[in-house]
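hey so u asked for the seq, here:
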Amino acid sequence: MSLTIRGRGTAPSCNGIFCRMVCLPRSILGGFSRVMGRRNQYNPPMIEQQNPYSQPQLQPLVVPEEWAFLSSFEQQYGTTHPFFYACRFMEALKIAEDEHKFMFMYLHSPEHPFTPSFCSGTLSSELVVQFLDANFVCWGALADRGEGLQMAATLRPSSFPFCAVIAPAAGNSIAVLQQMEGPIDPAELVEILQRTVEEQGSAFGREEEQMRARIQEAERLRAREKEEAKLRADRQLREEQDAAYFAALRIDQEKERLRNARAQKPGDASNRQMPSPTGKQTGKTRLNSSIREPQHTQGTQTTQILIRFPNGERREQSFASTDTILSVYRYIDSLGLPGLGNYRLISSFPRKIYGVDQMGMTLKDAGLHPRASLFLELL
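ran it, structure tokens below
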């Protein structure tokens, strides 16, 4: 009796794991299961033949392909064996991947002379059953039909019984981590499988750990880029507000300069008449006084602005109706309140935002005269 172990030492290295990569046939990749078994024994249902002239007879239904291996095995060797999933190969491989286990694959050749001793002495031993059920997802198939025949043609075993330790790989391939051909006793089989789990499992664990580290690093980079983008947006908004502030300030300074220039024109002094020695004014003087007085009264109209802050504090300030929205911003900045960064002013009802585009408007044109309430909203 000879044992051939393939897949270790002389095989090429893939990601630090000694294995060989096998491309699966298209028929296996596209297969789907009609049944999904999660028990160790297959009992085919019985049907009754409809013949009124004969005694009722029971006839078994055709065994589905997924149950063919278990049915053949248990009819000859009993129900003591590892838990073999009665499903298609790709479904068993997906179960192994989800449970973070390797797949133990057994191709059953009933006519091979070494098969009876292997099945009754090794696969049915309590040691092998407990070890495989605890550490592997087991899948078996007949080597001369269905997916078992396709896997035999793909892996090309030179002898039977044939066992292999399978792991999923990228694309349409699988990694054959260990391959055993020929008869083998229970203790030797468990020793080989234990060594495979320890060596190959640690390598796969390192790969998963490296993958998790790469994913975490990518998430940190995305969070950092998001934070930097937010800081850039805040800085840009602050620069735009400052630019609008200084532009409106220059406009106010220019208006102030023009008002002062008109007030200092020589013609203004000549239009003023000295009071007569008798203390009486002429009709023209009284007329000019009656015209200027309403203009003076209109120019000094005040607007009461109540400003509410996010912390609940309130401040009320008087402004001229001809002052701009910028004057309110300048007043708030002059308070030096802590925690104020980027902000904007909002009227509650009707809701209206007084931001960068409205800083040049007068309070009267903005609808805030003679009295208004504004809320300071932090950005």
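Residues 40 and 285 are 120 Å apart (CA to CA). The chain has two domains: 4-45+57-213, 299-379.
lmk if thats what u needed
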